[in-house]
Every structure is written in C-alpha cells, then in structure tokens.
Write a structure and sequence with these properties.
The chain has about 270 residues and is mainly α. About 75% of the residues lie in helices and about 5% in strands. A hairpin with a 3-residue loop joins strand 1 and strand 2. The protein is globular, with a radius of gyration of 19 Å.
Length: about 270
C-alpha cells in the first residue's frame, strides 16, 4: 500500500507538470507519444507479440508518430495521419505474408486493432488541448478518468458488497461504482465552479452529463483493459510503475475518456 501511495503521488506531480507545460509547443505531443509507444509495447507483450520485433517496432513507431502529429498546428496533419495508418496496415499484412507459418490472423488482428486504438485514443488528449479553453478541457480528461476510479476504490472498500464484474475484475463492486459516480459529479461541479473564477464562461447544465457519461465510459475502459488481461491470464500490463503495474494499468480509463471529452467539447463544451 505504501509503495502504491508513493507512486500515486509521483504520478500526480507528473500529471500536474504535464498539464502546466501542455501549452509549450510539442511538450504534450512528445510525452503522449512516448506514453502511446510504451502502452502499445505492453499490450503487444501481453498478447505475446512483442517477440515479433519488426511488427512491434513498426507498431510503436506508428503509435508515437500518430500521436505526435495529431496536432492541428501541423500543416496537412490529417494527410500525415492517413499516410501513417496506410503504412502500418501495409507493414502488418506484409509481415503476415512473410511469416504466415509463425503468425496467426487473430494475432495480427489483435495487434493491429490495439495499435490503432491506442494511437487514436492517446491522440485525443493532444487534440483536446488544442480546442478553445483547451487547458481546462485537458484537466477534465484526467478528472473524469481518475476521480471515479479513486472514489470507487474508497466507496467499494467501505460499502462494497455486490460484485460489478466478478469474472473480469473481482474487486470492483456496484456500490463502489455508484460512489465513484457521485464523487465525480460533485468534484466536476466544484471544478467547473472554480474555473468560473478565471473568467471562463461555464455551462453548468452540461457538467452532470460530462460527469455521468464520463464515469460510465471510464468504467468501460477500465473493464475493457482488464478483459484483455484476463483473456491472456496476466495480472498487470507491466511493472514500470511500482504498486500500479504498467503504463496501461494506469492509463486504461483515459483511452475511452479522452475521445469522449474531445467529442463532447466539439458538440457542447462546458467552458467557453
């Protein structure tokens, strides 16, 4: 527990520094590109594909490049991303044809799908920062990703009795999920209220929608990551973060929350 708490404090400090420096050109792009590449490696390792070095290297390079260049400030950034995606698919199937006897189509499909998803989901963090009031929107991503999880942990510890998904994630409870949702709604309104003091216009009517849907999507993201681990019979994606596991063990809920926040900001932003 002590190790987990200490690592959590370090992650929090890192997160604060990341958010504060996210407006500096290429800082957020670079860090999220590294996170994406590390996450892709962990996933491919869990899927027993990391031994295929050409495929793994290509996937990691693609993920990092996709996230780095998913910034509207780059000329023709959409074209760059389309070309990168085409090259990844070309590499994957060329590799499969060359190594047909040692690589199965389900393995190839898993690696390709997870690489594309990781690149897309992490790129949503960069895209969200480049929106109007992007600083506050970026904070919202991490708030909706980790507050429900933290609230669910403590509420589940105190009141949890009924399992939420006993086969996929035995420690999660319905009481914890409900408590996490309630905590997230409260923290989200407090956050929006504080942001209002900066002079930003706040749409308080939509805060609850962000919080409720964000919490539910965060849970889906967490359970989806756990589902993959259960399928391959592993406890964690890695051991990079003491007490927490790997990059994907800490950033799994962000996968789904980041694109959700980005889409919501495009449709009905909280801050204006």
């Amino acid at each position: 527990m002590k190790t987990r708490v200490l690592s959590g404090v370090c992650i929090f400090i890192f997160l604060v520094l990341l958010i504060l420096t996210s407006g500096i050109p290429f800082v957020l792009n670079t860090i999220m590109a590294v996170v994406a590449a590390a996450g892709i490696y962990e996933i491919l390792k869990v899927g027993e594909l990391s031994s295929k070095k050409t495929l793994t290297a290509g996937a990691m390079i693609f993920g990092a490049a996709f996230v780095f260049y998913s910034d509207p400030s780059f000329p023709f950034y959409r074209g760059i991303l389309n070309v990168a995606t085409f090259l990844l698919i070309l590499l994957a199937f060329t590799y499969y044809m060359k190594n047909y006897n040692s690589t199965t189509l389900p393995d190839l499909a898993f690696g390709l799908m997870m690489t594309l998803l990781a690149a897309y989901f992490f790129s949503a963090v960069v895209l969200t920062r480049r929106t109007e009031q992007g600083f506050w929107n970026l904070v919202m991503i991490f708030l909706l990703s980790w507050i429900p999880d933290t609230g669910a942990y403590f509420c589940g510890f105190l009141f949890g009795k009924h399992k939420l998904a006993p086969i996929i994630s035995p420690k999660k409870t319905i009481e914890g999920a409900v408590g996490g949702l309630a905590v997230c709604v409260g923290i989200s309104y407090l956050y929006a209220y504080l942001v209002g003091f900066t002079g930003a216009n706040v749409n308080y009517g939509i805060v609850a929608v962000y919080a409720i849907l964000g919490t539910l999507i965060s849970i889906v993201g967490d359970l989806s990551a756990s589902l993959i681990k259960r399928h391959y019979n592993v406890k964690d994606y890695g051991n990079l973060i003491p007490g927490h596991g790997g990059i994907m063990d800490r950033f799994d809920s962000i996968w789904f929350v980041a694109p959700f926040v980005y889409l919501m900001v495009m449709i009905c932003p909280i801050f204006g």
